[in-house]
Amino acid sequence: MSAEPARVWIVDDDRSVRFVLAAALGEAGYEVSGFDSAQGALEALQRRPAPQLLFTDVRMPGDDGLVLLDKLKAAQPQLPVIVMSAYTDIASTAGAFRGGAHEFLSKPFDLDDAVALAARALRDSAGASGDGEPVAADEDTLIGDTPAMRDLFRAIGRLAQAPLNVLITGETGTGKELVARALHHESPRARRPFIAMNTAAVPSELLESELFGHEAGAFTGAGKRHVGRFEQADGGTLFLDEIGDMPLPLQTRLLRVLAEGEFFRVGGRELIRVDVRVVAATHQQLEALVADGRFRADLLHRLDVVRLRLPPLRERRADVPRLAEAFLRAAAAKFQAPVKQFDRAARERLLAYGWPGNVRELENLCWRLAALAPGDTIDVADLESALSTAPSPAAEASWEDALGRWARERLAAGDSDLHAHARERFDRVLLEAALAHTGGRRAEAAARLGLGRNTVTRKLAVGRKRH
Ligand SMILES: Nc1ncnc2c1ncn2[C@@H]1O[C@H](COP(=O)(O)OP(=O)(O)OP(=O)(O)O)[C@@H](O)[C@H]1O
């Protein structure tokens, strides 16, 4: 906030709402004025310096809040407006967003939420570009205007202020890390570090020292003292991606550290105390891992104080053009080239596509097209050829990788019959897939797998005995 307190106006015919909201915003350091009608606010606009943020009710005698929104936006397109209403029906919410509302606050609301929202709206508008042009997507901007994303943004606003652990779920490439960063940037911890660690990317034997650090000589190869991610994140946020891949012994240790807020470095004697907010993410069903004995239920409960689900891109297709445009703009800025655009048919193809790799796939595609498409207009042929040369998202997380991770985890846990165990699971996966494909017909499933029928029967019997 600047040295001058920001001017916030509240328009609501309900006196008590005006009163409590004004008191809370005043306490937060804003200069607040209240109006009981849209008319009153519009008149004041002729005489007084314009507000920097406006809260308005929807249903009021005279002009309603949406009419006020239209008039204000015509005069002052940059003004952030927060629309408040007890009528949380789709029509008024959609109307408000179409009219350019920054946020929607449903009544009754929590005063702390309202104050946090005000701070965010003012910060966003201070950071917006002056000429109203959409800005190129930088790496930390979450783009989305579909209801699911709107809900998510609201949840981020609310949650950022609370010192709670958050679990973010969603398929790969849906933006989980970006959401974790947003939670951090919107929080009182924003000036402290945001530290990310992908559990699946670190060999399991190194995970413990990566997280908690180690003293010099703690184990072979530990030359110098190493400060772990927990310590690096002190005062800030630690983002643990792919938490479902964490080996069980480390889950136990993590649970203890989260409960106690202190730990020893590997090979260390000094008790380290940290204040860290943990945001974890996973693309897996953690409940299923718990049922399978591969994830600790108590750790899940500790991490899962609040859960944010990121919808796959195919469930919010309306965001695809917006995202694509932002990525093409970002790529053009980077390449110092004109911004390319999709023609109509290409845009339709984009909307129809399934996006198994979600936003990441779209982002990569746009960058490839920005670099390779011959003209400034991208047509369906350009698009199809870029889609067909894309590395499949499935290849990024191959089953060999998953198997390798599983093996390392079991070894770390002290298992010694890995091979038999892995073969049995391998057989089971193949058999189940083949049986599902043939509608349960064993002979056909055996033929499709290239196995004899007796072999299949035997393997099924083994599977049943064990499970
Ligand atoms: N809503 C969004 N707006 C703009 N960019 C986005 C959005 N969602 C995702 N991205 C971009 O897509 C890419 C993938 O996002 P991110 O790494 O956050 O996904 P993720 O869900 O954490 O993936 P994974 O599970 O594979 O780690 C990033 O480059 C990110 O900037």
TrEMBL record:
Pfam family name, one: Response_reg
Ranges of residues in domain Sigma-54 factor interaction: 142-371
Chain ranges of the Response regulatory domain: 7-122
Source taxon at top rank: Bacteria
InterPro entries given in the database record: AAA+_ATPase, AAA_lid_NorR, CheY-like_superfamily, Homeodomain-like_sf, HTH_Fis, P-loop_NTPase, Sig_transdc_resp-reg_receiver, Sigma_54_int
Main location: cytoplasm
Stored PROSITE patterns: RESPONSE_REGULATORY, SIGMA54_INTERACT_1, SIGMA54_INTERACT_2, SIGMA54_INTERACT_3, SIGMA54_INTERACT_4
PANTHER family on file: DNA-BINDING TRANSCRIPTIONAL REGULATOR NTRC (PTHR32071:SF95), TRANSCRIPTIONAL REGULATORY PROTEIN (PTHR32071)
Functional description taken from the UniProt entry: Member of the two-component regulatory system NtrB/NtrC, which controls expression of the nitrogen-regulated (ntr) genes in response to nitrogen limitation. Phosphorylated NtrC binds directly to DNA and stimulates the formation of open promoter-sigma54-RNA polymerase complexes.
Name by which UniProt lists this protein: DNA-binding transcriptional regulator NtrC
Source organism of this protein record: Luteimonas salinilitoris
